[in-house]
């Protein structure tokens, strides 16, 4: 993991492999001109005040995420200067947007793969700015290399043997106040949250032959011991005894049996309890309703919701939040076999309700239903479930935005606002009551499928049936942003992203502060 330091060195005196500065687009009377952002004054001076001119000559425009490398002049102690675009210059009384800083730092960190140390001299007017830069750099430096490179090969400097360059080893934040409590706290929070997001990314990227319900549960158990979190694992025998028909029905076609993992972080001064429930389908073939060719290759990511919940609980513990947080990981592998659930089968859920399975590829809602019922038994103040649940949500909102549904409008609004605040694109979605009728079954209490149009909302309505009465509940469908198949951008890598972790952590902080929404 990349190290983080609050440096007391100035930009001109820092000894490192590179120095990162910000540049922006002028949108005023000199529109199109490049502007050197605050924090880079010493670097601009080393270029005789002509840094912007040099960058423009090299084709830099200041566009968000644009990275330009150039050799450092003799007045600096670093060999390379990296200028990263911040987008438009903010208004006279405005500061640079924290998300723009986060993305810029991420772009720069990715460009510095293979380097040992880099100084980040981006605009830092507050501890919040420092936290955004640190978080972006730590997330941007991420690389999943566990399965790349040969141990018997000699690795070049800064690279893993036979594989890609290793991530940037150290991020030094300049322009901060290392002795200031606010800056120290900001750095500590950025490190804890980024490390847990990257832990979630590792889990999502791990091949399904190595990550299956039992091994995921083992990872959670080990983390619980490390961070003082109580972990309870229900195996197949316990699930049968408890009557968890949803988890058992989804997992019965696989050689790897299902698990329900409960993680509990408690604080002695906590007044509220937040329950987080994550869909953990470690591989989704679709079951008997087999997915078509071209749709199976990335289905190791179908446990992204459980990874996000796991990471958020650990982050809450590391930050010592004054709130009780329980995490429920509904883990199963959805496979076709002679033992698999068939379309037309009826499952008796943990709640006692019966579900007619019309499509075995609508399995996430089945495991979540059992976990939601079990979480509700403990009477938390609120429940949030996170899941890569429906392709319909991707069609509605695209690949970068997750949908938010809830049984309480104010709670839904709070989560949407929190997500936007931390830089995670989201959008509030309704739960139209008229869509519920489409799930009526002539055989069971409810079917696991309804109308095709509005499928993401139908899934939300299904889940709502299993939430305890009087409990505020929200559902985050992260099917779009959980796994990125395109080229990396900002602090977002190719592969698992750790979507929703930041939203869940901030929600836990708000709950601890008594502002649940």
From TrEMBL:
The keyword Oxidoreductase does not apply. Binds 2 manganese ions per subunit. Its cofactor is Mn(2+). Mn(2+) 1 binds at residues 284, 361, 363. The keyword Metal-binding applies. It is found in: Cytoplasm. Presumably involved in the processing and regular turnover of intracellular proteins. Catalyzes the removal of unsubstituted N-terminal amino acids from various peptides. Belongs to the peptidase M17 family. This is Probable cytosol aminopeptidase. The gene is pepA.
């Amino acid at each position: 993991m990349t190290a983080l330091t609050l440096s007391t060195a100035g930009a001109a005196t820092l000894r490192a492999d590179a120095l990162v500065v910000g540049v922006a687009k002028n949108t005023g009377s000199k529109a199109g001109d490049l502007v050197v952002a605050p924090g880079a004054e010493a670097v601009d001076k080393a270029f005789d005040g002509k840094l912007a001119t040099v960058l423009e000559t090299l084709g830099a425009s200041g566009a968000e995420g644009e990275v330009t490398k150039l050799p450092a002049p003799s007045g600096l102690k670093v060999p390379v200067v990296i200028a990263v675009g911040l987008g438009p210059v903010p208004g006279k009384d405005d500061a640079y947007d924290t998300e723009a800083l986060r993305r810029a730092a991420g772009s720069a960190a990715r460009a510095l793969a293979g380097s040992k140390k880099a100084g980040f001299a981006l605009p830092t007017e507050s501890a919040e700015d420092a936290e955004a830069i640190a978080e972006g750099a730590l997330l941007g430096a991420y690389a999943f290399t566990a399965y790349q490179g040969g141990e018997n090969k000699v690795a070049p400097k800064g690279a893993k043997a036979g594989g890609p360059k290793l991530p940037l080893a150290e991020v030094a934040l300049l322009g901060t106040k290392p002795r200031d409590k606010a800056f120290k706290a900001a750095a500590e929070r950025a490190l804890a949250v980024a490390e847990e997001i990257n832990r979630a990314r590792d889990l999502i990227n791990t091949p399904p032959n190595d990550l299956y319900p039992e091994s995921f549960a083992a990872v959670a158990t080990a983390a619980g011991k490390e961070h003082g979190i109580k972990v309870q694992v229900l195996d197949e025998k316990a699930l049968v005894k408890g009557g968890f028909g949803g988890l058992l029905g989804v997992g019965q076609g696989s050689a790897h049996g299902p698990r329900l993992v409960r993680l509990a972080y408690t604080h002695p001064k906590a007044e509220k309890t937040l329950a987080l429930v994550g869909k953990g389908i470690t591989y989704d073939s679709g079951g008997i309703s087999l997915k078509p060719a071209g749709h199976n290759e990335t289905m190791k990511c179908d446990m992204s919701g459980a990874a996000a919940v796991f990471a958020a609980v650990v982050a809450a513990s590391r930050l010592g939040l004054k709130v009780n947080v329980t995490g429920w990981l509904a883990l199963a592998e959805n496979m076709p076999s002679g033992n698999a659930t068939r379309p037309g089968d009826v499952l008796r859920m943990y709640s006692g309700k019966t579900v007619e399975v019309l499509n075995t590829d609508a399995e996430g809602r089945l495991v979540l239903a059992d976990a939601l019922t079990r979480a509700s038994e403990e009477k938390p103040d609120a429940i949030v479930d996170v899941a890569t649940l429906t392709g319909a949500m991707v069609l509605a909102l695209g690949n970068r935005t997750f949908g938010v549904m809830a049984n309480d409008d104010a709670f839904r609004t709070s989560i949407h606002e929190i997500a936007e605040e931390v830089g995670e694109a989201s959008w509030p979605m309704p739960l139209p009551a008229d869509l519920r009728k489409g799930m009526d079954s002539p055989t069971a209490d409810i079917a696991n499928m309804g109308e095709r149009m509005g499928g993401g909302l139908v899934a939300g309505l299904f889940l709502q049936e299993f939430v305890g009465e009087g409990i505020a509940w929200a559902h985050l469908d992260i099917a779009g942003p959980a796994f990125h198949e395109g080229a990396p951008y900002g602090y977002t890598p190719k592969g698992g992203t750790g979507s929703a972790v930041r939203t869940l952590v901030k929600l836990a902080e708000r709950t601890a502060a008594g502002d649940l929404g």
